[in-house]
Structure formats: C-alpha cells, structure tokens
Write a structure and sequence with these properties.
heterotrimer; A alpha/beta; B mainly alpha; C mainly alpha; B: mainly alpha; ABC transporter involved in vitamin B12 uptake, BtuC; two-stranded antiparallel sheet; 12 helices; globular; C: mainly alpha; ABC_transp_permease (chain B)
Amino acid sequence: MDTLLDIRNLKMNFGGLKVTDDVSLNLAKGSRTALIGPNGAGKTTLINLIAGAYRPTSGSISLMGQDVTGMKDTDRVRLGLIRSFQITRLFPDLTVIDHLAMAILQREGRSAGMFKSYHRMPEVLDEAMEALARLRLDPLANRVVAQIAYGQQRLLEIAIALVLKPKVLLLDEPAAGIPSSDMDRVVAALDNLPAELAVLLIDHDMDLVRRFAREVIVLSSGAVIFRGTPEQLGSDPRVRSAYLGEDA
Amino acid sequence: MVLFFNILSDAFVYGMVLFIISVGLSLAMGLMKVVNLAHGAFAMIGGYIASYITQDQGMSYTLAVAAAVVGAIIIAVPMERLLYRRIYGTSELTQVLMTIGITFVIIGVANFIFGPTLKTIPLPDELRQRVDLGFRTMSSNRVFIAFCGAAVAAGLWYVIEKTDFGIKLRAAVENEKIAGSLGIKTSVIFSVSFALATGLAAFGGVIGAELLPIEPYYALTYMVMLLVVVCVGGAGSIGGALAACLILGTVDTVARYLLPSYGAFFFYFAVIIIVLMFPNGLFGRKLNV
Amino acid sequence: MTALSQTRAIPATTRHGLRDLIGACAILAVGVGCFFLFPNNLSFLTIILSISLLVMSLDLVTGVSGVATLGHAFVYGAGAYAAGIASVNGVSDPLLLLLLGSLAGLLAGVVSGALILKGHGLSQLVISIALVQLASEGVNKASFVTGGSDGLAGLTIDPLFGIFEFDLWGRTAFWLALAVVLVVAVLLRILVRSPFGMMCRGIHQDRVRVRAMGASVYLTLLKMYAISGFVGGLGGALQAVATQVVGLDSVSFTTSAEALVMLIFGGTGHIFGALAGTFVFMWFEHSVSAASPFHWLILVGILLILVVLFAPKGIYGLVGRLFQHKEV
C-alpha cells in the first residue's frame, strides 16, 4: 500500500483533560487532507503529536511502515515528516536566504561544515534562490527577517518546509495572517506541491480548504467527528453542531 | 549521637538564616521572572545599617533591625521602579548583567560610606545567653534565629494563603496578563513584593550576621549560595525554598563537620547532582506553600 | 543609493573577507602600536591578549549560541593548569604547551557543555557556577599537582622555535600572544559564518525552528562548547606560557563573571567586540582599581547598567551604528 502516515488510536491527556481522544487517520501518497474544527478542538496538538513535539498518552504513529511513536522529532524530520508553524518561527536577525540555505544544508547533512560559507556554494545558492522565486520572495533574499512583512514571513515558512523535501507535510494554518492580496501566492504554492507528497493542512479558510482538499477531517474536543469529501461537509449535522453549537 | 544532634541543630539554624534571606528572592523570581543577583546586596545594606546603628551610634539592637529593614526597602523600591522594571521579561543574560551591575554599585557605595571593614553587630544580653536544649546547649541567638525563620515561613504562608494581597499575588504569578485584565494592579503587586523581598533579605542579613558575617564583599560571597537555594527550591515556591535551605544547609554543615577541608567541593558536587535531577527545582514553578 | 547598488554588486563573501581583513589589520596595528607605546607594560598587554581568548571563547557560547554561563573560566583554568602541570613535569616547548592547554580546555568544554546544556534558564546558570566553583575547589585541594592556593610559579619554557627566548621584558611572549589572537580571531570569524556557525546563531534565536529542520540542538551546542573550550584553554595556556605562573584565579567565579562583563562591554556576537571589550575593560581596571577597588566597582556597575539600558550591543554596536549613519 501507499500509506505514508498511519495514526492509530492516538490519545493525549493534559491533566484530566482529553486533548486528543482516540484519533486514527492515515495519509496515502498524494493525499490532500484538511483538518478543520473549532478553536480549541486540538488541531495543533495533533500536529505536535505527529511531529514528535509531544508524546502521546497511548496509540501509535507510523511513518512509511516504521513505528515512530517514540522517535525524536528531529529524527522524524530526517525521515521526511516536515511541519510548518501556526505562529511563525523564524530567526529574526538572519536573512531570508540564510533560512533556506540552512534548511538545504541540514537536509543534505552538510550543516556541520565549519569553514566554507554557503555563499561560496553555488548549488546551495541556486536552489535557495529558486525556492524563493517560486513564492516570489526572491527580491527579499538579502533582507533580515525582522524587516519583512508578516505575510512574507508566512510564505517563508512554507518555502522552508518545501526545501526540506518532505514526504509528509503538516501545514498549520499556512494562510493565517497573509493579506488577501498575497493569497494567490499561497494558493499557487499549494497547487504546485509535488503530486506524490502527502499533505495534512489545518486552516480556517473554507474556500482554501474546498479548493485544496480531497478529504476533510473534522476534529471537535479532540475527537474525529467527521471524515469525508469537502462536498459532504456542509450537510453533516455533527459538523454544524460542533461549529454552531446547535443540538444535533 | 550527640554529634548527630549537634550537626542537625546547627544545620537547622543555618538553613533558617538562608531561608529568611532567600525566600524573598524566590518570590521575586517566581513573580517577576527576574534573576536578581543583587538580592544579597540588600541583605548587606541591612547589615551595614544595623552595624552603623549599634556600633557607631550605640543604639539598641531592636532599633537596628527595624532601621535595616526600612532602610533597605527605601533604597530598593526606587530601584525596582527605575531599573528592575526595565528588565522584566528580558533574557537571563540581560538580567544577570543589570543585577551584577547593581551589586557592584551597592558594594562600592556601601564601602565608600562605611569603610571596607568587617562589620560587627553586637547582640543584646538576651541573645547572648546559653539555652539548654536537652541534648546540647545553644546560644539564645541561634534559638532566636530558628524562631524567626519559623515565624517568617508561617507569616508568609498566612499572607499568601489567607489575605487579599495573597490572592492577587498568586493570580499574578500564575498569569500576569490575566491578572492584569481582572483589574489587579500588577505593577503595585510587583513593587510591594519587591519591598517585602528586600525587607526580608535585610532582616535575614542582620539577624544571621553571626553565621554569615557582614564583610565588604558579602553581596558577592553569598550571591552564588542564594541563587543555588532558589534554583534547588524552585522559583516562587515558599515550601521549596524552605526545603532547599534545610537540605543545602544540612549538606553544607555535614560536609564542614565531617570533611572540613573538602566541604565546598562536596557541597557544589551535591548542587550539580540535585539541579540535574530537578532542573525546575524540587517544587516546580508555581507559587505554592 | 550608491551604497545600495554596491551591496548588490559585490558578492557577500568578498564583503565579509574585506571586513575581516580590515579587522585583522586593525588588531595588528593596535598590537604593534602598543608594543612601541607601552614597552614597559608588555606582560600586562600579554595577559589582556590571553584573557581576550577567554572572552572570545565565551562569545561563542553566549553571544553566538545564546547560552548564559557564569562559569566559563573553567575552560581557561583547565588550559592554564594543563600547561602549567605539563611544564612542571618536563614539557618545555611553548607550542606543545599551548596545544596541551587547548586540548584540556576542549575536554573541560565538553564536560561543562554536557552538564550546562541539560539545564534551562536559572538552572543553567547555577550549574555553570557550581561547576567552576567545584573545579576551583578541586584545584585548590589537589595541591600535590597544582600547588594549591600558591599556584605554580617559575615555569621553565624553551625558546620559541628554539630561537626566541622568553625574555624579562616579555617581548617574545607578546608577539606570540598577538599572533595567536590574530589567527584565532580570523578563524572564529570564518566559523561564525560557516553553516555550523549559522546553525548556532539560529539556535540562539529559535530552537524550535532549528529542531523542525531536523537538527539536534544539544549536539550542535555541545560541539560549539568543545570549540569554545579549545579556544578558552588556549588562552589559559598562553597566560601560563607568557607569565610562567598559574594561579587559582584563572579558574574562578570572579574571572568567569568578569569575562561576561567584558563581553557585554564589547558587544556579543562579534569576535572583534569581544576583543575591544577585553582591552577597554582591563585597561580601565588596571588604572582605576589601583587607586581604589571600590571606585572601580562603582564605575563598572554604573557602566554595566548603562550598557544594558542604552547600548545593549556594546562598544561594537555603538561603533557600528556610527558607521551606518555615515553610509546613509
């Protein structure tokens, strides 16, 4: 089978609170899955569990057939499980191109080099500039991140994730904070993701979700309450009650 | 057996001195999240004032204690407003540098005014008697210190658990922003807590002078010890500070009794082990009694 | 306008190379100038150069990588005592002694890094302090090899390359120290810009992002600690070779705290800042504290407070800002 990410009966308790309640899901090669749900439903917690930032209370996560439940987050990255962050996590004093060079060098296991600066590595520079150009960030290459707009920082987050050559990509609200004038860049970036990549996308923008996802999973109070196509979503009573607080 | 009780009672008194001085630091670190290396300097100010009042002016010990506490607070509160407030929420490095700077200035100024000599604070007759504890005799001063330590612990417990101020203080420790949005004036809470912390430091500095002598570099000599105590106890925890002081007081005293020449070596070794085992302190982060 | 187009035209590497060359020339010029201006103070200048290696070494872990430590004299002392003990036991080649000291510093760096990096915030500071105090006590008690509180004195050192004697005036020692500092400063500039150095700067700014790229924060910083230990140990060994004396103060809390203060005065994250900070601090200390140690403390304290409040990037930052204004 082409299952890349397989999550079974994942549970996570904070104190007495069930933040993740028996979640199972799998992502096959080429899947485009959106994870939605009201605020506090546990979407980011789930991403953190998958990425390895938290340890689940019980359940299992396997990546390309390998059990990674107890594996360190950094080792998961090396296997191709890449995430982006809901709130941008960048290096304020480094330049835009520094970020991409660092990611490329790390991906290739060359980040321990102590002599040659990446500025003298044409292949790294070219790849970094190309990755920036795809998101039209190339004019900002030598700007320090603290000096670029928030929307541009969000795009840089996506560029970093992509340059790490993911097999499974977890995008935590990539469009949050991006002004509508820049939305087409995000949409284009998502449309142009490599076809065989498995993507799990969290977002509140339903237009984006409908356009992007072939499968939608709705999370409420840590549990999966709906799984289906975007078209089935609107008519589902459980989803309506979760979002609108109506009685089902 | 006698030795055992001797060590234990000395350790207890020593731990109590540490507790009185450092509990304020622990409170401040838990509340304002500021690494205050100058805390010992406020104890030193107290000691210098008390020595001046008793030695140079010949006034009473009680008055000296009161003047030390009030004097330290009068010096500390403007500092909190003008200097400390600027470093809340900054990196540890910034806080370390600012508070080392404050320590240097206090040491320099104190010795400039009062002269760089060992300061003695003569005890009143009541504190110079011997008290029979059954298994040994002890100076009444040490009994007094132990009593003060217990009183400070109980008093703080009462203030934090039972008073209105305590409720606000706990709320501010828990979450400063939420407390602010509930209409609690966190800046006032900060100032009052800082005053309380320095007042206790000065009080501890004066009554503990027999065990921690007031000397020109007092603030630097005990800087490390105070940090260690807070770190081991867990910033913001009164129970933690008490436990840490008693444990470290015992480790230090035992080491000095049994391995007199390797005391400090043994002590710092123990500190590293304890901190590695409990990186957030024995009693975590939150303000609990 | 012209500045902007120039920035585009000249590749970053050339600009960096040029800046390093200017920096190296500046160090050399100041060094040579001092040699002729203060011929009677050469041994003091040599100590400044040795300590500047400790401050640069501290900059690697604190300024570049963001680890706050108050115990970095551990690596300096390790280097000084390794060189001193080796010298007492018959090793007298100055360069071999420097190498031994550096390796001891590297080892001390790995040990302190392995422990300090386990902590966070306050616990990190406390571990670093406890470690240097422990080392200091250990050296004090092991007097059969270290000389205890008397230290080691009267080390015999062979002439450098078999030719240049370590004379009474300290000329040879001074030139050796200047050469070592120059080489180390340039190498460290290269290190900080390398992929590894960039990773450490990244860790300083956001560890979570670094982990999400798949890099191990602990191992990266441990490597940096090893390098930093090597440089600090080299500084200690240099002082031992140059002064032929090793004392307990080389491995003390006070030296650790002073090194941190010098680094902050100079400016963190820039090797040249570390150099400037050491030079200015020690020169002032030398002249003021001779008059009264307490005046010196007041002065340093006030300066520290002012730097934290108004010039968080230190001397280097101030000078840098001056030049930036001129460019615009």
